[in-house]
Write a structure and sequence with these properties.
Order of helices and strands: EEEHEHHEHEEEEEHEHEHEE
Strand order of the largest sheet: 6-5-4-3-2-1-14
Largest sheet: 7 strands, mixed
Bound molecules: zinc ion
Radius of gyration: 18 Å
CATH architecture: 4-Layer Sandwich
Number of domains: 1
Helix content: 10-25%
């Protein structure tokens, strides 16, 4: 399968809005390094049968899909309901138009209830409108530690602690996408064994109450022993060249548009 990193930035992206000249606050990231320019975190998994699963639809989803020339997705899985992962939900009506039907989405009870309160109109039934003037969703409630199928692909989820709330880790074949997580319970770590690709949120260099940091990722890597570890959901102190120079060589650093493959 083919995995496209649509975005690998933290909740405000890199740069953050601001900066002395109004052109953005880059933190310690080098503005001249293109790989430091990060939109909000999301990935697309293209299965071997050509079907595509989107994980999260953040506020940058429209430009991300256009940039990567991805004109159709077949399902969406939501990791959790924070704005940087859901705020682009309205853009999915374009996908409705491409598919000609309601778009299947998969999320936990808590995430669905948050989505319903923010985007109530997207959950109304689709009757016979000739055209999608709003997103229309085909809702699938799932739970942590569920195993289910999307487009003939088995998906396994796990519970993640994200500071004051929970998020969901997603394993698809030998690829796992675990972002917005500071603690993975024992059961989840077992689910993450024998991975080809461990795509993991790593917001900053040092400890954080809601997000993993470099030391935490190294700890998980030691336990689950993935073939490759790729950092995503990075904030403004994660300069790409600094990371390349200072991380162990078997830790890779994502950038927007990075494409990865797993058999
Ligand atoms: Zn986030």
């Amino acid at each position: 399968m083919k995995i496209t990193i649509l975005g690998c930035g933290g909740s405000g992206g890199v740069p953050l809005v601001g900066g002395d000249d109004g052109q953005g606050n880059w933190g310690i990231c080098d503005p001249l390094e293109q790989k430091n320019q990060r939109t909000r975190s999301s990935i697309v998994i293209e299965l071997n049968n050509g079907k595509r699963i989107l994980i999260d639809s953040g506020p940058d989803i429209r430009t991300q899909l256009l940039r990567e020339k991805i004109g159709r997705v077949d399902a969406v899985i939501y990791s959790h309901a924070h704005a940087d992962h859901i705020a682009g939900l309205d853009e999915l009506r374009s996908i409705n138009r491409v598919l000609g039907k309601a778009l299947p989405i998969y999320a936990t009870k808590d995430t669905l209830s948050e989505l319903k309160s923010r985007f109530a109109y997207a959950f109304k039934p689709w009757k016979t409108q000739p055209y999608f003037f709003r997103p229309v969703l085909d809702v699938h409630q799932i739970d942590y530690y569920d195993n289910f199928m999307i487009e003939n692909q088995s998906i396994q989820t796990c519970e993640q602690i994200h500071g004051f709330c929970k998020s969901m880790g997603i394993r698809c074949g030998d690829v796992a996408y675990c972002t917005d997580v500071v603690r993975i319970p024992e059961q989840g770590l077992k689910i993450l064994s024998n991975l080809d690709l461990f795509i993991v949120g790593c917001f900053q260099r040092n400890e954080h109450p809601a997000h993993a940091w470099i030391g935490k990722v190294l700890e998980w890597k030691k336990i689950i022993k993935p073939k490759r570890t790729i950092l995503t959901h990075m904030g403004p102190d994660m300069d790409w060249n600094w990371l390349k120079a200072n991380l162990p060589p078997d830790i890779e650093v994502a950038y927007d548009g990075l494409i990865l493959y797993s058999s």
